[in-house]
Design goal:
Helix content of chain A: 25-40%
Radius of gyration of chain B: 11 Å
Oligomer: heterodimer
Strand order of the largest sheet of chain A: 1-2-3-4-5-6-8-7
Shape of chain A: globular
Number of helices of chain B: 4
Helix content of chain B: 55-70%
Structural class of chain B: mainly alpha
Distance between the termini of chain A: 31 Å
Largest sheet of chain A: 8 strands, mixed
Structural class of chain A: alpha+beta
Strand content of chain B: under 5%
Order of helices and strands of chain A: EEHHHEEEHHEHEEHH
């Protein structure tokens, strides 16, 4: 069963594949999400039990306002990405504003140009296929790496307190992500 | 100019750091100057200096000065 049938089950580009998560992915995702190196930048650091993870999956399978993907590079899972409607009451097929999220669990790809690839895939999909007007994100103010990462994609700061609200228009994205896209779109040897 | 000197010059120019800070163990994201933007400038600089066109796997793998030498060797650049 597809987690959210309103959006593509698989998205590919920039050397990575995004596949909607299935029940068999839950334990891997739970282990990643509970790892302090990932959890430290999440809004909640609560430890997630197997039961909580199962209930969460049951919930998202009934919620058409969000879609969750496993990120694969050369067929190996390296992280997770998701999109969700910013405004309540919308579904992803009709959303005007979407909030994407991503983490790279494999350390060797975290501080690497490849970490931009899943975001480029999702952003392209949101702007070109779902026709959203704007992407929005909320980042903890002490997460300078995420703020810098998003700035390189063209995000602008809307509001900054302990949490920093940022947003991205299609025009800014097309302008600022051009170089990243070109480097991650070249032919590969494998 | 030797290829080693060209390589050091390319790193120094792209990362905007002194040449004496360029050594084999210098790695991506271990100094503030070598972030993703600088990495892209570095790739362009290396391609220009050595007249090669790197593929995406090599751009992703180029995580240190030593790794840069190993990758460029695949393109017949000798150090």
């Amino acid at each position: 069963m597809q987690q959210n049938p309103l959006v593509e089950e698989r998205l590919t580009g920039y050397q990575v594949e995004l596949r909607q998560i299935v029940e068999q992915d839950l334990e891997l995702l739970r282990q990643w999400r509970n790892d302090p190196s990932v959890a430290q930048f999440m809004l909640s650091q609560q430890h997630i039990s197997e039961e909580q993870q199962r209930l969460w999956f049951k919930h998202i399978c009934q919620d058409q306002s969000q879609a969750h993907y496993l990120v694969l590079y050369k067929s190996e899972p390296i992280g997770s990405a998701n999109i969700r409607c910013y405004f309540e009451g919308e579904d992803l097929a009709k959303a005007s504003t979407i909030e994407p999220g991503i983490y790279i669990a494999k350390e060797q790809y975290r501080n690497n140009l490849l970490a931009f690839a899943p975001t480029l895939v999702l952003n392209d999909y949101c702007f070109e296929h779902l026709k959203v007007e704007r992407l929005k994100a909320v980042v903890k103010a002490d997460n300078q790496a995420a703020l810098s990462y998003n700035k390189k994609l063209g995000y602008k700061v809307d509001c900054a307190t302990e949490l920093v609200e940022i947003s991205l228009t299609r025009e800014d994205y097309e302008q600022d992500a051009k170089m990243l896209k070109s480097f991650l779109s070249r032919p590969t040897t494998t | 100019m030797s290829n080693s000197e060209k390589l050091v010059g390319a790193f120094s120019h792209a990362l905007a750091i002194d040449e004496d800070r360029v050594h084999d163990q210098l790695s991506y994201n271990t100094i503030p100057e070598w972030d993703s933007t600088a990495h892209m400038i570095l790739i362009a600089e290396l391609e220009n200096q050595f007249e090669v066109m790197l593929d995406t796997d090599d751009i992703i793998d180029m995580s240190s000065v030593l790794k840069a030498k190993q990758i460029l060797s695949k393109y017949d650049v000798k150090f």
